[in-house]
Amino acid sequence: MNIELLIGTWLLTGSISLNSDIKFIGDEPDPNGVENWLNGNSNNLIDQVEATEGLTLTISSDGKFFEERTGEPKVYWFDSEGVLESEVIPFNGHLSFYDSKAFLLVDDLVSWAVPSDEVNKKKLRYDDGDTKIADSIEVQGEQLIRTISVVTDELYLDRVIIVYKKANK
After folding, report:
1. Residue 46: helix, strand or coil by DSSP?
2. What is the CATH number of the domain that holds 39?
3. pLDDT, tens digit, for every residue of 10-63?
4. Distance CA 74, CA 31 (A)
5. Which parts of 7-69 fold into alpha helices (H)?
6. How many domains would you assign to the chain?
7. What is the pLDDT of residues 60-89, one digit of tens each?
8. Which of 64, 131, 152, 164 is deepest in the core (most CB within 10 A)?
């Protein structure tokens, strides 16, 4: 992943979310279900995003990102503390690159929500034992696609696809 593609100010244009459950194999949850969900995407839903605006994401060349709410965006939103909120609550942080993907990580996360293993420290923005959140970004054509994958209690799955367009300079 080339950071040069990500640098700039991105304006929210749309979002879609979905909820699911871990699949079971017989009577047991799929042993790879959590990892597969956190590493997955739902790019097939991009064409179905619902238009919304009112949020900017700015990524600087030093790998920092800043969010600013500029209106009333309609987005299924998990805040920096992993809480599902009724409105968008912006947060700031830094990029992490792992396995050719870029992830948004929160600065100054409370210690008990920092992932414990070294790989997850690079790709999860939140892990308190009950809730895990992976927040990845990629550029597709003229759009920045943000995929927020959430697993709660090792069983319940949420995914939010957020689409941005580059702001005119």
Report:
1. helix
2. 2.40.128
3. 999 999 999 999 999 999 999 999 999 999 999 999 999 999 999 999 999 999
4. 34
5. 33-39
6. 1
7. 999 999 999 999 999 999 999 999 999 999
8. 164
